[in-house]
Design brief:
It is found in: Cytoplasm. Its EC number is 2.7.2.11. Pathway: Amino-acid biosynthesis; L-proline biosynthesis; L-glutamate 5-semialdehyde from L-glutamate: step 1/2. The strands form two sheets. This protein has an eight-stranded mixed β-sheet with strand order 3-4-2-1-5-7-8-6, sandwiched between helices. Strands 10-9-11-12-13 form a five-stranded mixed β-sheet. The longest helix is centred in the first third of the chain and has 24 residues. With 387 residues, it is of the alpha/beta class. It is built from eleven helices and 13 strands. It folds into two domains: 264 residues, Carbamate kinase; 93 residues, Archaeosine Trna-guanine Transglycosylase, Chain: A, domain 4, CATH 2.30.130.10. The structure holds adenosine-5'-diphosphate (ADP) and ligand VHF. Ligand VHF binds next to α2 and β4.
Length: 387
């Protein structure tokens, strides 16, 4: 298999050399919320066929919490974090054991990869995960990724696996991301509402304007369509097209057939570094810019010079991610600081030539270089991010 990168049309999907497939809890469970071994096996069969045809697959699978419900004697999906962690701890092993058996029956090995949001935030961890996934793929293994729910805290967890899957797609430089759920694609409104119809193709944000995604989905899934569209925006916005389809249509989706919704890549493939900065990095502090500096950074895409910074907050080292805000506090960009939070106050509002004259040539550089900056898009959605 080979692939021109990025794929321009869904009919190229059968030739995509490397795909990330994400499956949600709602597609792996029985109606009462327990893990359904038949659905796990059915998906493994489809992915095993892809693997046998020479395609590399990374599976991002939810379902750990659901898999823990039955063995722990719980009646439904737990709501509190501690019981979710306990259920995931019991369920993750059982979930992967089912996949391992189903793939082993086809002579394919799987490898479990548990990531926390922090692993996609801290640069060293990010690189480490990237290296491990790459090696697993080289060795012909199907990596099975999930969030490490047992150690994730409320503050730092993804909660759903949609955004994690988009970051993993980027991490492994996938040619496409396939999101499998319990509905066949994005609909014009809640799929159960009369008159809602499937949207077969989305070429840009204007195609989803007015689409109602506010309805929560299944009782076992987390995030509904909101986090799926966030995932699409991360992946498609950085050059990786996405197919959103029902798990029942997994085979057809991977074959490039007209099922679900095809989200064309909208942005160029960004460097992993900048994507990490835009979507994954937790900022360690804030630099408040004056209006002129906001215009320079946002409209002219220049570096942020000390003269345009009016205040600094937080505790960060040179090289740490920081938020750049307008005078009213709105975050306009994220960047890697070239100075520590201790050094910045001494530079505030001063020109680079003053700084060079007073402090020496090492201090005439930008506070954030343009190559280390990403602009933050304002979200149109007023829907709160679910947990
Ligand atoms: N406009 C829409 N189009 C399609 N699905 C929608 C829409 N709005 C809300 N949804 C809901 O999103 C749900 C899928 O999200 P979720 O339950 O979190 O699934 P998963 O477990 O696969 O992550 C669907 O069951 C559907 O009811
Ligand atoms: N990491 C969790 C995922 C939680 C979840 O429900 O996610 P999803 O079904 O993708 O919305 C688990 O494995 O249960």
């Amino acid at each position: 298999m080979s692939a021109a990168s990025p794929l321009l049309h869904r009919r190229e999907l059968p030739d995509a050399a490397r795909v990330v497939v994400k499956v949600g809890s709602s597609s792996l469970t029985t109606p009462d919320g327990h893990l359904d071994p038949a659905r796990v096996r059915a998906l493994a069969e489809v992915l095993a066929d892809r693997h046998a045809a020479g395609g590399q697959v990374v599976l991002v699978s939810s379902g750990a919490i659901a898999a823990g419900i039955g063995p722990l004697g719980l009646s439904a999906r737990p709501r509190d974090l501690a019981t979710q962690q306990a259920a995931a701890s019991v369920g993750q092993g059982l979930l992967v054991a089912q996949y391992a058996q189903a793939f082993a029956d086809r002579g394919i090995r799987v490898g479990q990869v548990l990531l926390t949001a922090d692993d996609t935030v801290r640069r060293g961890h990010y690189r480490n995960a990237q290296r491990a996934l790459e090696r697993l793929l080289d060795l012909g293994v199907v990596p099975i990724v999930n969030e490490n729910d047992t150690v994730a805290t409320d503050e730092i967890r993804f909660g759903d696996n949609d955004r994690l899957a988009a970051l993993v797609s980027h991490l492994v430089r996938a040619h496409a991301l396939v999101l499998l759920t319990d509905v066949d694609g994005l609909h014009t409104g809640p799929p159960t509402r009369p008159g809602s119809v499937r949207i077969p193709e989305v070429r840009g944000e204007h195609d989803v304007a007015g689409v109602d995604v506010t309805t929560r989905g299944s009782a076992v899934g987390t995030g509904g369509m909101v986090t799926k569209l966030e995932s699409v925006s991360i992946a498609a916005g950085s050059g990786i097209p996405v197919v959103l389809a029902s798990a029942a249509n997994a085979r057809a989706a991977l074959a490039g057939e007209d099922v679900g919704t095809w989200f064309a890549a909208t942005g160029r493939r960004a460097s992993t570094r900048l994507l990490w900065l835009a979507h994954a990095a937790r900022t360690r502090g804030r630099l408040v810019l004056d209006d002129g500096a906001v215009r320079a950074v946002v409209e002219r895409r220049t570096s942020l010079l000390p003269a345009g910074v009016t205040a600094v907050e937080g505790d960060f080292e040179a090289g740490d991610p920081v938020a750049l805000t307008a005078p009213d506090g709105t975050v306009v960009a994220r960047g890697l600081a070239a100075y520590s939070s201790q050094e910045v106050p001494g530079l505030l509002g001063r020109t680079t030539s003053d700084l060079r004259a007073e402090l020496g040539p090492g201090y005439d550089r930008a506070v954030v270089h343009r190559d280390d900056l990403v602009l933050v898009k304002r979200r149109a959605s007023a829907v709160p991010r679910p947990r």
